[in-house]
Design goal:
This protein has 616 residues and is mainly alpha-helical. It contains 21 helices and 5 strands.
Length: 616
């Protein structure tokens, strides 16, 4: 009979476990479906917008990467630099009015807003933000503004994850996880890199090389679903195509090391330019909705001379991978005859147009431009070494691909996910070794700078984990670690009368008085507060004994207890000290441990860990 009941209990637990797992699996699949649909809608809006604004209005038809084809036929409208000059300003004023009227938090690059929501807002995002971000980003990017697609699509996925968790009444922790799953799904689908999308959602939250482990599996499920939906509509394959490059010569590591240092310098320039422009625009004393229009005009001025720095720019990097420098330029240009000059103008111009487009309050991401800037600078270094030592660097193409990864690592503190990102985006997995070297060096040399201001250094400094970390640290410290703080106290015999105790009490600063039997075993305890009722009871002092004052229901701690247990005991009963007794015999008193010493020790431990984390 007992065996039958045990089997029934096991079956019930298994059923409950499967039901719970199935519920969460459904949630993450649903997030993936919505994020995938959001990616499809946003991609289609971008395609239509580029055709209407860039092609039909200005006659500018930038090339597309190999994995993306134009959905609409190109027109024969002649190219006009003058229309291209004012087009980004038009997009800026429209998107600026929409953003600052309906959802001001949708300004800038959306990934930072999602990071901030994870750490400081319990994963909460207003439901309108993804919709506003989608519309305004599509307008900004398709009228010539420079930016990426990951920001808006990250907010679409994150926004739905947050919305679903809120509607289901889930905890802040669950909302954060579902929001991060939405980030991974959106980014993984729009860039056709599902594994990297999941890792990115878990890594981008911190400046240190640290992953939010509880996010990886949910983001992985959602990312796979979103990726499959997106590819079912727009075709399978990677975003970029590349020859089958291989790393076979260790001597190439020297040029790759130079590449890493060049990318670090360019990355610092990018971050400083971006936030320098942002600071300038925030200081302008004009209505906020006008600022993206001014930023758009500045973008248009750069684009007037360097049209290849507008919009996405992925097609130019695709052409560079194959060594086709002139294809896609709006008109015959001297830059096409000087590949190094062309790539430099693409990288530096992209830094300016992205800073003006997004730093002024426009909507768009910063990953996309980073891919272009890094690829262009990688091409510059690759071309130089190809001319200097063609036997070691026979083709600049691998440097373009590795440059994409290294540059974004330098500005985002996400080395692992970025290596996977670029490998999936280019379908080139034979360059993992040089990518690892370049990304590692770039990360180590640029930790002080990041394009994501809302990143925190580590879980220790994340408000989302403040309570958890407090408990984890307390549980890792045991009472025996504080043995040097144990206080030796005067022991009170059970039969001591109150008159004798008053004499002792007048000569001590002790507040807690353990009571011992004739064998010096702990039998009770009382505090200075407990004697108030009898302190002035004259005539009874010789009759009242210590055992009459004490409580035998003693709250104690042992050397093997952790500090979390200690603090829980003292706070629950509102007491300032605990007797420390032997683990084997609670009648053997070792000393007293006070709340003040516990808290002081904890603070010193945190300060020590923080200094170690900073490398001091």
């Amino acid at each position: 009979m007992a065996s039958g009941k045990s089997g029934l209990t096991t079956f019930s637990l298994m059923k409950e476990s499967y039901t719970n797992a199935g519920k969460w699996l459904f949630y993450f699949i649903l997030i993936g479906v919505i994020a995938g649909c959001g990616s499809m809608v946003f991609h289609y809006l971008c395609q239509v917008g580029v055709h209407v604004f860039m092609d039909l209005v200005a006659g500018y038809r930038p090339p597309a990467p190999a994995g993306e084809h134009h959905l609409l036929p190109q027109s024969d409208v002649p190219f006009s630099r003058w229309l291209l000059l004012f087009l980004p300003a038009m997009g800026g004023i429209i998107s600026g009015w929409i953003v600052y009227t309906f959802a001001p938090e949708a300004e800038g690059h959306g990934t930072d807003a999602a990071i901030d929501s994870y750490h400081r807002k319990g994963g909460f995002m207003r439901a309108r933000v993804p919709l506003v971000k989608t519309i305004t980003s599509a307008i900004t990017l398709t009228t010539g503004g420079s930016g990426g697609r990951e920001g808006p699509i990250a907010q679409i996925g994150a926004g739905f994850g947050s919305f679903l968790a809120t509607k289901l009444g889930l905890s802040d922790r669950d909302r954060r996880i579902m929001m991060a799953a939405g980030i991974g799904a959106g980014v993984g689908s729009i860039f056709r890199a599902p594994l990297a999308g999941a890792l990115f959602a878990a890594e981008v939250l911190y400046k240190d090389p640290e992953f939010e482990s509880e996010v990886i599996i949910p983001a992985g499920i959602s990312s796979v679903v979103a990726y499959c939906l997106f590819c079912l509509v727009f075709g399978w394959g990677s975003l970029f195509e590349s020859p089958d490059f291989h790393f076979r010569n260790p001597l190439e590591l020297g040029p790759y090391l130079v590449l890493a240092l060049v990318l670090v310098g360019t990355g610092i320039l990018y971050v400083k330019a971006f936030y320098g422009v942002t600071k300038i625009f925030r200081a302008f004393n004009i209505p906020n909705f006008l600022k993206p229009a001014i930023g758009g005009l500045c973008t248009g001025i750069v684009g007037f001379y360097l049209p290849h720095t507008l919009a996405f720019g992925y097609g130019y990097i695709q052409n560079a991978i194959y060594g086709n420098w002139t294809s896609g330029l709006p008109m015959t240009s001297a830059l096409g005859q000087w590949p190094i000059l062309f790539l430099l103008s693409l990288a530096l111009g992209k830094i300016l147009t992205t800073s003006f487009s997004i730093g002024s309050g426009g909507s768009g991401g910063v990953f996309g431009p980073s891919v272009v800037i890094g690829g262009a600078m990688g091409g510059v270094v690759g071309l130089i070494f190809n001319q200097i030592m063609p036997g070691v660097v026979p083709h600049p193409g691998p440097f373009i691909i590795v440059g994409m990864a290294g540059f974004f690592t330098a500005v985002s503190n996400t080395p692992i996910s970025t290596i996977i990102f670029v490998s999936e985006m280019t379908n080139s997995y034979h360059l993992l070794l040089p990518s690892l070297l370049v990304c590692s060096v770039a990360y180590l040399a640029s930790q002080r700078w990041t394009i994501y201001e809302k990143q925190v250094k580590s879980k220790i400094e994340s408000p989302a984990h403040a309570g958890e970390f407090f408990i984890d640290v307390l549980q890792s410290i045991h009472v025996e670690d504080l043995s040097h703080l144990f206080k030796k106290v005067t022991l009170i015999p059970e039969n001591m009368n109150f008159l004798e105790f008053k004499q002792l009490f007048s000569e001590t600063k002790q507040h807690y008085f353990p009571v011992m039997d004739k064998n010096k075993r702990l039998t009770g305890i009382f505090s200075s507060t407990d004697i108030r009722s009898v302190l002035f009871s004259e005539g009874l002092e010789h009759l009242i004994r210590a055992k009459d004052l004490c409580t035998s229901d003693i709250i104690v701690t042992t050397p093997s207890d952790n500090l979390n247990s200690v603090l829980r005991k003292v706070t629950t009963k509102n007491i300032d000290g605990l007797p420390v007794v032997s683990d084997d015999d609670h009648g053997v008193l070792i000393g007293m441990l006070y709340r003040r010493e516990v808290i002081t020790f904890y603070n010193e431990k945190i300060e020590e860990m923080t200094k170690q984390g900073k490398g001091d």
